[in-house]
């Protein structure tokens, strides 16, 4: 994968830690829309074997997404907002990114074989397992907040944002 990427090296993206949620149905529901964005941004060299495989995976994703009676029901607004709090930043090799995609589809296949409906509301799981944005109780020196406790200062530069590598992420196989 690394030699066939249009932009080789490490790739950075947002995705869901399956292990963090510890609930397969909620993981698939939270990760499904994020996976669509990730597949849309991934590009391999034209006519490479991975470019052809990516097209197959994108078609498979689109068939699931565009089905008349979708197997993965869209989350309501509250559930979607809560699932977004479960996003983690990954910075991995292209190969490790593709392993995450493969694991997602393997998990989905198992759930579909069990005839899971994905109709369950996962809001409680997201609230319990995903950190909510912290609201400061008192403003630090030089940091302004509005009446609702929202920080008014500019965001931190990207260099200070945390990122996760596959090597440091939790998981039984050492990967995310």
UniProtKB/TrEMBL annotation:
Region of interest (Disordered), ranges: 130-176
Listed GO CC annotations: extracellular space; membrane
High-level lineage: Eukaryota, Metazoa, Chordata, Craniata, Vertebrata
GO biological process, alphabetically ordered: osteoclast differentiation; positive regulation of macrophage differentiation
The protein's name: CSF1 factor
InterPro entries in UniProt: 4_helix_cytokine-like_core (IPR009079), MCSF-1 (IPR008001)
Stored Pfam families: CSF-1 (PF05337)
Chain intervals with Low complexity compositional bias: 165-176
SUPFAM superfamilies in the cross-refs: 4-helical cytokines
One function term, GO molecular function aspect: growth factor activity
